[in-house]
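> call design_seq(struct)
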């Protein structure tokens, strides 16, 4: 039985990226002890954080703690279902873990490389959420599109079925974002052109994923015809975000971006007239270049949790496949800007250089080309236009809300879209 105990001093956790402290006034935390480990459940800024911790040493009056999943004893306890409130389900026996190291530490999850019978990857969710469909998506894709996404071995759920840990195949390869950043830097220095080969591979992978998901017959992923109400709600997201941006920022770029969003929403409302026989389906939902790993001639897609802050929409909503392509397009814009290095991404935000225009267009064209190589899929330029703006509005709110400082990137894109001189939007116009 787990015993309720006092939590370690929160100040000891200050360097944990999953604990958002700046601006937080109070934290309500509960801790339970199980075999020398602690399970901490905290409420921070309205979000529930779950973390397993290992108190390692006492310094003065405070305990220094580590992530418990770095200890094989704890992983075994979790995977064998011996920790109260957690239960585990495995489709493949992973064998006993003997070496564990941290691969990535994000604001919401911890990525671990685990050596057991094979090299495995574990994703530990520091926000255990009911609307996280990642285990379902991984299971479905590993069956219906083998090799496209990591094969899941075990899932550990918390309480009423909230995914807490996914143990899966380590897919290796390199993060596409890293490749694109490197290539952008090279182009800016006057070297190589846009990543064409990678774009084709990524486009093809996105098409394979959509094809598999569009033939899903289970309730959670069955495609449905989109209604005029869906369309109205997608445009409504733009309006909500226009006002959220104004609430979160007072600078002049923010007010221009907010104005641009409202103008775009009005235009879309006039242009997009239902009924149009569009299908909405389960899609990736957050398909940026950081979620794709490229190895040799294939791309593996990861992270099926959806967007971490989708307000005012829900992560369970179905959307049209074009949204994933719009996410990729937007990610190409980030890659080129950030590839410049340092603060150079701020240059020419509203008036991009010819090099940038060409690079972004070629990079996106390659993705679209790769996508269309798989027969039987169609792309609607109208939907792409809608999602380009909607995704950029999501990004602007996200960057402001999480204080990344990068909000000018999507804001400038929205202003360019409104003025009609965004290179990615022009690429879409060419599809017409
Ligand atoms: N199965 C896997 N094998 C190898 N690397 C992975 C795997 N799943 C995710 N990654 C990598 O781990 C990092 C974080 O994973 P991700 O699922 O995107 O979590 P988050 O976005 O919450 O940090 C990314 O660099 C991703 O490429
Ligand atoms: Mg991710």
């Amino acid at each position: 039985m787990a015993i309720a105990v006092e939590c370690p001093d929160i100040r000891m956790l200050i360097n944990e990226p999953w604990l958002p402290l700046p601006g937080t006034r109070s934290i309500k935390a509960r801790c339970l002890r199980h075999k020398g480990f602690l399970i901490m459940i905290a409420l921070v800024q309205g979000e529930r954080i779950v973390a397993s911790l290992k108190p390692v040493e006492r310094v003065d009056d405070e305990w220094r703690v580590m992530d418990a999943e770095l200890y094989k004893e704890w992983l075994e306890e979790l995977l064998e279902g011996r920790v109260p409130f957690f239960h585990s389900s495995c489709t493949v026996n992973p064998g006993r873990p003997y070496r564990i190291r941290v691969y990535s530490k994000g604001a919401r999850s911890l990525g671990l490389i685990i050596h057991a019978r094979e090299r495995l990857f574990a994703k530990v969710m520091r926000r255990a959420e009911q609307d996280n469909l990642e285990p379902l998506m991984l299971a479905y894709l590993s069956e219906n599109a083998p090799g496209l996404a990591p094969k899941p071995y075990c899932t550990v759920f918390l309480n009423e079925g909230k995914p807490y840990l996914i143990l899966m195949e380590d897919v290796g390869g390199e993060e596409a974002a890293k490749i694109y950043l490197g290539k952008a830097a090279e182009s800016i220095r006057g070297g190589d052109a846009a990543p064409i080969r990678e774009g084709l591979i990524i486009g093809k992978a996105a098409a394979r994923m959509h094809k598999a998901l569009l033939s899903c017959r289970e309730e959670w992923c069955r495609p449905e015809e989109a209604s005029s109400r869906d369309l109205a709600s997608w445009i409504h997201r733009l309006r909500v975000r226009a006002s959220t941006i104004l609430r979160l920022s007072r600078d002049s770029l923010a007010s221009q971006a907010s104005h641009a969003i409202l103008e775009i929403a009005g235009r879309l409302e006039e242009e997009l007239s239902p009924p149009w026989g569009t299908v909405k389906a389960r899609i990736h939902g957050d398909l940026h270049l950081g979620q794709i790993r490229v190895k040799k001639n294939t791309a593996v897609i990861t992270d099926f949790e959806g967007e971490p802050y989708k307000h005012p929409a829900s992560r369970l909503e179905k959307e049209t496949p074009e949204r994933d392509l719009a996410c990729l397009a937007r990610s190409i814009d980030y890659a080129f800007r950030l590839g410049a290095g340092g603060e150079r991404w701020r240059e020419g935000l509203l008036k991009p250089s010819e090099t940038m225009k060409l690079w972004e267009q070629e990079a996106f064209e390659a993705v679209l080309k790769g996508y269309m190589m798989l027969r039987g899929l169609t792309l609607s330029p109208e939907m792409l236009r809608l999602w380009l703006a909607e995704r950029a509005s999501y990004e602007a709110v996200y960057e402001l809300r999480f204080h990344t400082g990068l909000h000018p990137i999507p804001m400038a894109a929205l202003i360019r879209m409104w003025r009609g001189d965004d290179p990615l939007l022009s690429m879409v116009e060419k599809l017409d």
